[in-house]
Amino acid sequence: MRSLFTTLKARRVLFTNPAAPLTGRALQPPPVLPLDDALRALLLDRVDEPGERLIMLLAGVHALRPSQICALTLDAIGPAADSLLIGGRTRPLDQLTAGHLRAWLHARRVRWPTTANPHLLINRSTAGGLKPVSRSYVQATVHRAGITARDRACLLLSPLQLSERARLRELERHNRELEMENTFLKKAAAYFAREHR
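Given the sequence above, the corresponding structure tokens read:
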């Protein structure tokens, strides 16, 4: 629609574009994934450095892609280090991630006190410049932790405990039964409504 009105306006058929004030649907950021404490501890025990732990939490809990993690700058951090600005939207951090973010900022300040690099994550090769760490650096951290893409998808898409999964299956079965009964009752009501006319 917008391109149609833009073309008509350019040809002087229309004077204003009525679609100009329209905006697309705003995308909501992905939610913080509810990983249980045991799974978080497992993820964090596999890496040692504060930056690597932060990468694991940003990827595993906040579902950030490696390119998003690399692009984070110090300006994106909220005043109390409890939120991040990602894609123009402020996303709150859980306490664990916020704590590891503060730990990384402290370690970064101690290790490279004079760096001018504006990016949140830096390493030996990027501390002297202004470039972000590479995606392969983030991917290597995840790989060193022993997590494959398939593992990550399984961990993120089904973080439910066994008891929760069983309860979910039971509720889905009960829901199907109720839907079948509802369909039967609708058909019966339609049949008796036709019969009494």
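The longest strand covers residues 83-86. Try to locate this feature in the token string yourself.
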